[in-house]
Write a structure and sequence with these properties.
Elements: H1 3-14, H2 21-32, H3 37-53, H4 57-67, H5 72-84, H6 87-95, H7 105-109, H8 117-129, H9 154-160, H10 162-168
Length: 176
Protein backbone atom coordinates (compact mmCIF):
# COMPACT_ATOMS: atom_id res chain seq x y z
CA UNK A 1 0.00 0.00 0.00
CA UNK A 2 1.33 3.39 -0.99
CA UNK A 3 -0.25 6.83 -1.43
CA UNK A 4 -1.08 6.11 -5.08
CA UNK A 5 -2.91 2.88 -4.24
CA UNK A 6 -4.68 4.65 -1.37
CA UNK A 7 -6.03 7.33 -3.72
CA UNK A 8 -7.02 4.62 -6.22
CA UNK A 9 -9.11 2.96 -3.47
CA UNK A 10 -10.83 6.26 -2.73
CA UNK A 11 -11.54 6.93 -6.42
CA UNK A 12 -12.87 3.41 -7.00
CA UNK A 13 -15.15 3.73 -3.96
CA UNK A 14 -16.75 6.84 -5.48
CA UNK A 15 -17.76 5.12 -8.72
CA UNK A 16 -21.47 4.52 -9.32
CA UNK A 17 -22.48 6.24 -6.08
CA UNK A 18 -24.12 9.35 -7.53
CA UNK A 19 -22.18 11.23 -4.82
CA UNK A 20 -23.95 9.28 -2.04
CA UNK A 21 -21.39 9.40 0.78
CA UNK A 22 -22.87 6.38 2.57
CA UNK A 23 -22.76 4.24 -0.56
CA UNK A 24 -19.15 5.33 -1.05
CA UNK A 25 -18.33 4.31 2.52
CA UNK A 26 -19.87 0.88 1.86
CA UNK A 27 -17.82 0.56 -1.33
CA UNK A 28 -14.64 1.54 0.47
CA UNK A 29 -15.36 -0.88 3.31
CA UNK A 30 -15.81 -3.65 0.73
CA UNK A 31 -12.58 -2.74 -1.07
CA UNK A 32 -10.64 -2.83 2.18
CA UNK A 33 -11.78 -6.41 2.72
CA UNK A 34 -9.69 -7.39 -0.31
CA UNK A 35 -6.49 -6.10 1.28
CA UNK A 36 -4.25 -7.95 3.68
CA UNK A 37 -3.68 -6.89 7.30
CA UNK A 38 -0.51 -4.92 6.65
CA UNK A 39 -2.13 -3.04 3.74
CA UNK A 40 -5.05 -1.97 5.91
CA UNK A 41 -2.65 -0.77 8.61
CA UNK A 42 -0.65 1.16 6.01
CA UNK A 43 -3.88 2.66 4.61
CA UNK A 44 -4.72 3.83 8.15
CA UNK A 45 -1.28 5.43 8.45
CA UNK A 46 -1.68 7.20 5.09
CA UNK A 47 -5.13 8.41 6.15
CA UNK A 48 -3.69 9.90 9.35
CA UNK A 49 -0.87 11.57 7.43
CA UNK A 50 -3.41 13.14 5.08
CA UNK A 51 -5.46 14.25 8.09
CA UNK A 52 -2.39 16.00 9.50
CA UNK A 53 -1.63 17.70 6.18
CA UNK A 54 -5.18 19.08 6.11
CA UNK A 55 -4.92 20.47 9.65
CA UNK A 56 -4.94 24.05 8.42
CA UNK A 57 -6.69 27.17 9.64
CA UNK A 58 -8.03 28.10 6.19
CA UNK A 59 -9.64 24.67 5.81
CA UNK A 60 -11.13 24.99 9.29
CA UNK A 61 -12.56 28.35 8.21
CA UNK A 62 -14.05 26.61 5.17
CA UNK A 63 -15.67 23.96 7.38
CA UNK A 64 -16.93 26.67 9.72
CA UNK A 65 -18.44 28.60 6.82
CA UNK A 66 -20.09 25.54 5.27
CA UNK A 67 -21.45 24.07 8.50
CA UNK A 68 -22.38 27.28 10.31
CA UNK A 69 -19.72 26.58 12.94
CA UNK A 70 -17.22 23.79 13.44
CA UNK A 71 -15.83 22.31 16.66
CA UNK A 72 -12.52 20.48 17.02
CA UNK A 73 -14.30 17.14 16.52
CA UNK A 74 -16.30 18.56 13.64
CA UNK A 75 -13.07 19.58 11.94
CA UNK A 76 -11.68 16.07 12.33
CA UNK A 77 -14.76 14.76 10.54
CA UNK A 78 -14.51 17.50 7.89
CA UNK A 79 -10.92 16.53 7.08
CA UNK A 80 -11.91 12.86 6.87
CA UNK A 81 -14.73 13.81 4.48
CA UNK A 82 -12.26 15.87 2.43
CA UNK A 83 -10.02 12.83 1.98
CA UNK A 84 -13.09 10.88 0.88
CA UNK A 85 -13.70 13.41 -1.90
CA UNK A 86 -10.56 12.16 -3.60
CA UNK A 87 -7.08 13.23 -4.53
CA UNK A 88 -8.01 16.10 -6.87
CA UNK A 89 -10.43 17.81 -4.47
CA UNK A 90 -8.19 17.15 -1.47
CA UNK A 91 -5.01 18.65 -2.92
CA UNK A 92 -6.87 21.57 -4.52
CA UNK A 93 -8.33 22.40 -1.09
CA UNK A 94 -4.91 22.16 0.55
CA UNK A 95 -3.60 24.61 -2.02
CA UNK A 96 -6.65 26.92 -1.82
CA UNK A 97 -9.45 26.13 0.61
CA UNK A 98 -11.83 28.35 -1.36
CA UNK A 99 -11.62 25.85 -4.24
CA UNK A 100 -14.29 23.88 -2.38
CA UNK A 101 -16.79 26.49 -3.56
CA UNK A 102 -16.79 24.66 -6.91
CA UNK A 103 -18.80 21.88 -5.26
CA UNK A 104 -22.57 22.06 -4.78
CA UNK A 105 -23.99 23.21 -1.46
CA UNK A 106 -25.53 19.76 -1.00
CA UNK A 107 -22.18 18.01 -1.52
CA UNK A 108 -20.47 20.43 0.85
CA UNK A 109 -23.10 19.95 3.52
CA UNK A 110 -22.36 16.21 3.37
CA UNK A 111 -19.07 17.14 5.03
CA UNK A 112 -20.85 16.77 8.35
CA UNK A 113 -21.14 13.03 7.61
CA UNK A 114 -17.39 12.47 7.47
CA UNK A 115 -17.08 10.85 10.88
CA UNK A 116 -17.38 7.28 9.57
CA UNK A 117 -14.16 7.61 7.57
CA UNK A 118 -12.30 7.95 10.86
CA UNK A 119 -13.23 4.40 11.93
CA UNK A 120 -13.38 2.67 8.59
CA UNK A 121 -9.87 1.21 8.49
CA UNK A 122 -9.94 -0.19 12.02
CA UNK A 123 -13.40 -1.67 11.40
CA UNK A 124 -12.24 -3.25 8.15
CA UNK A 125 -9.23 -4.73 9.91
CA UNK A 126 -11.45 -6.18 12.62
CA UNK A 127 -13.92 -7.60 10.08
CA UNK A 128 -11.06 -9.23 8.17
CA UNK A 129 -9.17 -10.67 11.15
CA UNK A 130 -11.66 -10.86 14.04
CA UNK A 131 -9.00 -8.91 15.97
CA UNK A 132 -8.59 -5.28 16.90
CA UNK A 133 -6.15 -3.35 14.77
CA UNK A 134 -2.79 -3.12 16.55
CA UNK A 135 -2.09 0.25 18.07
CA UNK A 136 -0.18 2.49 15.70
CA UNK A 137 2.17 4.76 17.62
CA UNK A 138 2.00 8.27 16.23
CA UNK A 139 2.00 11.85 17.37
CA UNK A 140 -0.78 13.79 15.68
CA UNK A 141 -0.10 17.34 14.63
CA UNK A 142 -0.55 19.59 17.66
CA UNK A 143 -1.95 22.72 16.02
CA UNK A 144 -3.19 23.85 12.63
CA UNK A 145 -0.89 25.42 10.05
CA UNK A 146 -1.51 28.94 8.85
CA UNK A 147 -3.03 32.04 10.34
CA UNK A 148 -5.60 31.62 13.10
CA UNK A 149 -8.89 33.46 12.65
CA UNK A 150 -11.46 34.91 15.04
CA UNK A 151 -14.83 33.16 14.83
CA UNK A 152 -16.55 36.37 15.95
CA UNK A 153 -15.27 38.25 12.90
CA UNK A 154 -17.31 37.34 9.82
CA UNK A 155 -15.08 39.53 7.66
CA UNK A 156 -12.23 37.10 8.25
CA UNK A 157 -14.29 34.24 6.83
CA UNK A 158 -15.17 36.43 3.86
CA UNK A 159 -11.49 37.20 3.28
CA UNK A 160 -10.20 33.64 3.73
CA UNK A 161 -12.80 31.90 1.54
CA UNK A 162 -14.72 34.58 -0.40
CA UNK A 163 -16.49 32.18 -2.77
CA UNK A 164 -17.54 29.79 -0.01
CA UNK A 165 -18.69 32.73 2.08
CA UNK A 166 -20.80 34.00 -0.83
CA UNK A 167 -22.26 30.52 -1.34
CA UNK A 168 -23.30 30.12 2.31
CA UNK A 169 -23.92 33.68 3.47
CA UNK A 170 -27.69 33.17 3.49
CA UNK A 171 -27.11 30.63 6.27
CA UNK A 172 -25.54 33.32 8.42
CA UNK A 173 -27.30 36.27 9.99
CA UNK A 174 -25.18 39.04 8.57
CA UNK A 175 -25.73 42.77 8.43
CA UNK A 176 -24.02 43.98 5.27
Amino acid sequence: MDISKFWDLIEQSKKNTNEDIYLQLDNLREALQHLNKSEIIKAQEIFWDLMDQAYKWDLWAAAYTIQGGCSDDGFIDFRAWLIGRGKEVYYAALENSDSLAQMTQEALRDSEAGEEYNYLFAEAYEELTDEEMPEIIRTPKASPDGKEWDEENMNEFKQINPNLFEKFKEDWEIDE
